[in-house]
Design a protein that fits this description.
Belongs to the TMEM198 family. The protein has a two-stranded antiparallel sheet with strand order 1-2. It is about 65% helix and about 0% strand. It contains 12 helices and 2 strands, in the order ααααααααααααββ. By secondary structure, it is an all-alpha fold. Strand 1 and strand 2 form a beta hairpin.
Length: about 325
Amino acid sequence: MEGTEAPTPEVNVCALEVERKYEVVPAIICSMCFLFGIIYCFFGYRCFKAVMFLSGLMFGSVVIFLLCHRERVLDTELSVEASAGISLGIGLLCGLVTMLVRSVGLFMTGLLLGLQLAIAALVATSHFCTLGTVWVPLGTLLGAGVLCAVLALQWQKLLTVLSTAVFGAAVVTACADYFVETFALATHVYDCLRLSPSPPLCWYSWVILAIWPALGLMGILVQWNLTADGFSHTEVIVSRRQKKVQLMRIRQREAKKRQQSGSQPGSYRRKATPIKRYAGDILAPSYLQSLRERQMGTGTSLSSLGTANHTMDYDFETGSTVPLTAAVAAPVIRV
């Protein structure tokens, strides 16, 4: 009939070819993040310091980039290059803090794990029921993030392995989503979080989404059985302390040896104990003179006998007088 319009056929969006218009800065960032995601997933706990730095770098850079790119800063709309530069600078600062302060790095690692689990739960729930208010996703994200962050401080190795494997798999999935369908999956997740209507996902979007749990489970198994087996992030700190203690002990031993041998300049030398002398140790001059006369043979016999009979010595130890001639051999009398 005339005047009736033919119904427009429904267009299958998934059958259409995806228009890929890549920009330079996002492509470079995604390429770097893809490499970091592989390191995260399979060598996360082994490269503990590097992972702590990358956690702060990625978290700070992504948050600041979204704020600068979506919002107007000082009444001016920033370009993508300017937003990337600002976010990179602040991300470097956050990375240094998380690397140098271990508790902050562990808290950040647990926070990332909680946020990922909460996002997965909210996206799965949005396909079955509609959330009433935006505060439900925000509360879920905050509660799960803080809970996993506190648990990461308690069970450090287990939560670090889980967080790095899951986060690395999520980064790889996001990069694959950009190169295949220019962030169509990421846009769908973002719309689910802010409770906005979103077009249904295509089959290849579900294939990309399946990379996340599969790669995350593979990363957990590889880390727990291979790369993280027999390794502890506290060994580095303990070994440094042990080296310092051993070095201090060696130095103390060397100092004691130098003091004992007296080779150390300026060391105190103890004086020898002086020999105690008594007044009786000093011989009488007359006794010495008589000895000399007897040795030389110049004295007379009568004078020698008189001197020997009248010369006495006082013994201070026993308190008695002893003749000096008692200890001397009998004099020779010449006729």
